[in-house]
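dumping this here before i forget
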Amino acid sequence: MRIGLAGTGRIGAFHAATILSLPDAPELVLTDAVPEAAARVAAQLGAEHVTSLDELFASGLDGFVIATGTPTHARLLRRGIAEGVPTFCEKPVAATLAETGELARLEQESGVPVHIGFQRRFDSGYLRAREAVQAGELGEIHQLRCTTHDVTSPAEAFIATSGGIFRDCSVHDFDAIRFVTGREVETVYATGGTKGAPFFAKVGDVSTGAAVLTLDDDTVALVSAARYNGGGQDVRVEVHGSEASLAVGLDDSYAFRSAEPGVEFPAGPPHTTFMDRFRPAYVAELAAFVSLVRGEIVTPCTITDGLEAFRVAEACELSRSEGRPVRLDEIPGLA
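structure:
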């Protein structure tokens, strides 16, 4: 088996190393818009490298991994589908909702398997929460509380092109809510604040965001996002039911200190980056993609899944800007 990977920056180099670490690892060939970058990573990992996308596909690929910058995702995804090669793509698949919808239709019409990189679907805690909900262990689900708080903010250049905190950050929570509950979002109400660097307000974004989501069975989900969380990387979900509650991310790396006397939990240290927090999930995600390429499984996260999470994010940004609840049926979906 031969897999091609485009983009050898931080996440691309990490994915390349992960693929090569898997049992029965496939052959891996790398490319990058900066050929020297691909050559450097290839030399470090003992992989092949080529200088262009055309060369990459001409080398005979069984699978294609897109780990380039966001503005290139849609173009490369179209190329992978056109070549008939099972493709893995980091989120978002496109910069706009309309283009994401076009790609979802293309995926369905082509029949080419596409796997979108929502790594929380492969995290052991999120998988356990989904299992508990499906099995009825918690009784009737009434509420979810979802948190994604980064230790430090990305740079201004990233924030200026990220699409906003709900599209870039909370979109993972929106997908996780659908994944864990099996339900769809019906309405959202969102707000945010701009404390911190001045560039958030400058580009019309917020450094802290919050949203109340109502699902199609009247479950309420509370979503919190933040660019500044000095206590550590805090990514959690709490699922509250009529019989019991379950928390994901409640372990010794929990990014809190207790105010209660004599309480030593958590022992620490906290996670400091999202890659640290989800390292095992990233490994499981790439292992699943290799299984997809081998034809052993169906795609675990389609472009349509990405589209639905994007629609919720779009509704949140609209709600925040207009100061009103927004129904999901106001946001165009897959026709």
